Amino acid sequence: MAFKIKFGTDGWRGMIAEDYTFDNVRRATQGFASFLLAHGKQDQWVVVGFDKRFASENFAVAAAEVLAGNGLRVYITNDATPTPVIAFSVVNKQAAGAVNITASHNPPSDNGYKVRNETGGAIDPEGLLEIEAGIPDGMEAVKRTPFSSAEKDGRILRFDPAPAYIKHINQLIDLQPVKDAGLTVMVDPMWGNGAGWFPRILAGGKTSVFEIHNTRNPSFPEMKRPEPIQPNIDVGLQAALNHKADILLITDGDADRLGVGDENGHFINQLRVFGLLAYYLLELRGERGDIVKTLSTTGMLNILGEIYGVKVHETGVGFKYVAPKMTETNALIGGEESGGFAFRGNVPERDGILAGLYMLDFMVRTGKKPTELLKLLFAKVGGEFFYDRIDSAFSGDRSDREKTILAANPITIGGLKVLKLVTIDGFQFRLEDGGWLLIRFSGTEPILRVYCETRHGDKVQAILQDGLRIAGLK
After folding, report:
1. Domain boundaries, the chain
2. Which homologous superfamily is 386-470 in?
3. Which tens digit of pLDDT belongs to each residue from 241-271?
4. How far apart are CA 255 and CA 83, in angstroms?
């Protein structure tokens, strides 16, 4: 029986040479090509991009050959390219969609496959199911045109996506004050696609940009994986301290996520960064628009929504839910707990580069460093919010685990009263202090995630431990 390709929270990921093979990439691309053709995209262009993982450029070529074999035309990036730049290129080139060869933050053993629609954003769950249904069981149904002949015929074109994206960024934000501010910025692109982008965009002024982990190394030394959370970022935090940097900007493997370290070498968790970015747009830039957040992101956004009179929409975890809702509502900002943030005026895709530039602009406009910006945010929302997460491998049947969680029916968690249970995605227990505990299964890995946010810093670990017990993991 052929390997069944399934699209999770953000595409399909697998172990290189085990299930992530050239033939399976070709099969997945045939499913996407059939989907595009079924939706009237004959003879239209598709953008293909890739990251710096092992053989990603070769997997991208394999995908391009199948798209060309199905009568589609292909723009393929000339180098490893950030996911947000690939997404923008879809709109800039008026393409029908994109294939992106990347496993984002997964371990070095993995690679991945993302698809995007004509907006540059994630395809909704119904569309992904349609793509999956169109993936053939064998290679005999896969149509291919050799890359060299398709390139010779003009059906495949290599292109440099950087100039158009950088021009676009300069239309969204006035970068000259940031360049002239004399900041010291440390950047950790985590051996990934974000390398070189901040130095290039911010060149020509008094601000200095230093990078670490900015070459290609698919084994990702000095970190478990290119995910912008601790302990993966500890070397970057120390480098920021060594350079007396005003801020550390961290992008994950494909540069669609942002992590932030403050001027004291401390990590600012992603929920607080989401709050800071929303506050910056609403207060400093005076913009108004809906906020789209996943269940696993901060309650500070709900408070900001009330203060500034904007709607807040909650979705399941993953940009396949966030992007369509952003498009539907013309949202100001959308994001998720993993550090992925998207913005109105840009494409409905996470953009770690633009998010980082907005953070720098926030600092320049206020004259404040990251710790001082947090104080502004907490003063606005009425106090600090605390967050943490535990990921645990689990064994046994998922449905049995779900029954265990439902049967627990806790009255209190971490000493706080449970107000209600929300099951949009996993199991979220809303707590009396405005915080929450969320238990959900990863959409890309065999992992059970337990997350929480609370106004009580001394209750974070107690809430998480209760979550593990509810899930039957303790």
Report:
1. 12-163, 180-381, 386-470
2. Alpha-D-phosphohexomutase, C-terminal domain (3.30.310.50)
3. 999 999 999 999 999 999 999 999 999 999 9
4. 6
